[in-house]
Design a protein that fits this description.
With 276 residues, the chain is mainly alpha-helical. Helices cover 62% and strands 5% of the residues. It has a three-stranded antiparallel beta sheet with strand order 1-2-3, with no helix packed on it.
């Protein structure tokens, strides 16, 4: 084969193959993004919730507290850690469930609230049984802990990390009473935030409806859109005579105001089709 003939042979276009793969990946990403945009109800976003951020501190602090000040053989240790974990995890699970069931989200957030109440009693029992003083809400240290929480309420950019360091002055104390009282303050803050969250979810459910109601509304809207697109039914044929059908509106009968396909040969032909 001559050199000129070899030059005419098609060469493998590895760059083209890579380009095709990149286009496939891009199309897949676009499809995923479109699917997310088409969801009737959003889900997730729990990491930006202040309630989730606060319960994360409570969970981390409880694990540390039990390791430092509790008898590891005690059943209370496992119960406290599990209650703290439940307070955090149910917020996340509820946020995810919001895409398909607002009632499930409400139930899970209420479970989180109940778990924190259980944990609160454990810390109060710890102080009482050891004759340690529980802070009053007007105590200087209690006010200082609350001030930290109020100052960080709008710090949504911290959603990916724990606020534990902000409370290290108290949570790192060698005095178990100081640590327990600090966590009690945090639990009260988390409970307040969850009460607000529950109230907002209940209001949203009453005003907007749950997933089933929104799904039904979306279906009705889609059918109305489809009907408007079929106002010129070139592919609709009369089942009786084969002539074209036209979109008509019933003026009387059982369903006045409803639309249907009627034969263009009416009144000679009374063929009709229902709109699905």
């Amino acid at each position: 084969m001559s050199e000129s003939e070899r030059n005419k042979r098609p060469k493998a276009n590895h760059g083209g193959q890579l380009s095709d793969r990149s286009h496939q990946i891009e199309r897949t990403d676009q499809t995923d993004n479109e699917a997310r945009r088409m969801r009737i109800r959003p889900s997730g976003g729990y990491r930006k919730l202040r309630s989730f951020q606060t319960t994360t501190v409570i969970y981390d602090a409880t694990v540390s507290f039990c390791e430092r000040f509790m008898d590891k053989r005690s059943r209370t240790v496992d119960q406290m850690v599990q209650a703290a974990r439940s307070g955090r995890q149910n917020i996340a699970e509820g946020s995810r469930a919001n895409a398909t069931s607002s009632q499930t989200e409400l139930r899970l957030v209420n479970v989180a609230r109940a778990s924190l109440d259980e944990l609160l009693l454990d810390y109060e029992d710890f102080l009482r049984q050891r004759s340690l003083r529980q802070w009053n809400k007007d105590d200087t240290q209690a006010r200082e802990v609350r001030t930290v929480g109020k100052h960080r309420t709008d710090q949504s950019d911290l959603s990916g990390q724990s606020d534990y360091a902000a409370y290290l002055r108290w949570l790192g104390s060698h005095d178990p009473a100081v640590v327990a009282n600090t966590i009690i303050c945090l639990i009260h803050q988390a409970n307040y935030l969850l009460d607000q969250q529950i109230a907002a979810l209940e209001k949203q459910f009453v005003e907007v409806g749950g997933y089933s109601e929104q799904l039904a509304a979306a279906r009705i809207q889609k059918r109305q859109h489809d009907r408007s697109d079929q106002s010129n039914p070139t592919d609709q044929k009369c089942p009786l005579c084969g002539k074209l059908m036209t979109l008509r509106t019933a003026k009387k009968g059982k369903n006045p105001g409803s639309q249907f396909w009627g034969c263009t040969g009416y009144p000679e032909c009374r063929g009709v089709r229902n709109i699905d």
